[in-house]
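Example record for the data management plan.
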Amino acid sequence: MAKVGQVVGCSSSYTKTIPMQLPHLYRELSNQFRQWIQPRDQRHLEGVSEAVAAILQSESACLNHWLPYLSHRKCTARSHHARLNYLLTNPQVDAQTFYAPLLQQLLQAFAGASVRLTLDTSMLWDQFCWIGICFVWGGRSFTLAQIVLEHGSASVAFEVYHPLLEQALSLLPSDCQVSLLADRGFEHGELMQWCNRHAWDWSIRAKSNLSMTLASGHTQSVAQLLPPVEQAYLFPNVTILDGIPCHLATATLPGMQESWAVLSSQPPSLQTFERYGQRFGGIEPHIKDYKSAAFDIIPSHLRDATALTGLFMLLDIATLIALVLGFLLVRCGQRQTLDAHPQRGLSFLQLGLRYLCQLRHLGQPLPPLEPLPRRSPPAACASLSKRDRLNCRIQFSKVTTFPFSS
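Corresponding structural encoding:
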């Protein structure tokens, strides 16, 4: 019998007799990735596969939490950290090489479809700004293109995020009918002109001090065009920002902290608010998954914009895999084995993470990753009250469409 404090089975002769096995998930991810990802150096693919497998199993963006899933390498924790930090900052391990091929594989079914994208920012430690363009699907969203900058504000210039627009454009399947949703920090004429050139529809929330020329020829600020409570105003054919034509819809609802004012490339109607409202259901849970609900990036202790951009790319790959697994679980009718709600109450991401744990526990292989379906499933609802809020119809006591001329 072993004495107290004695380590059993750790002698040098014992460890030499046990061959080191590659972890199943790492091996399975690597094999699937090789179908689409062709890096210059295969060692980079191995590193990405290891890191993504560690993220999925630890459900953490903290490098320290990945260490138990990297134990097949005979490295110290310090050596693992050095290798992972190199992976995150290696210019050859970029989204164009590793994320784009996987994303294009999963978006095949959306050729010619109507899709909605969100453009948003989020601050990290009041020091770094995440900028992302995301694809709205299944009541949530996932990233198309993103970058992290050392920038103390959530407001960024068009020149900063313009490359992300070009990346998103190149990643979408052919003939997509795109509608871009953005908050008032993106009230930029250059963005509207870029969208118009590429035949993208857009809906952007307007700041209250924005001036515009109405169809009547009068110039007023958005603040002067806000309606009373329970009313909506529709202003077709306005001109803003040195001659950009668009439309404006404003509304004030009881209980809201402030009125809505939405600029749009499409003629204004009550559906303008419904379209813009999808931004909240898409981007806010997505950012929450980054920060706390799924991967908990806040305690990662990374304070380098390049490393954070690389880390977000790995999180995006892990998110896509979990999202597909969650959808496959629902499609095969096994959702209720992992989700106790009568109807789907967990996001596809959360279902996928649970499904992966089940596969690991049962020793079953990872199923082949399949393209997402073109038809977006309804959003998850964890309670009947939340479902009622999602399904409720906003009613106005009066809707006024202002005439084309005075």
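Summary line stored alongside the record: The chain is about 40% helix and 20% strand.
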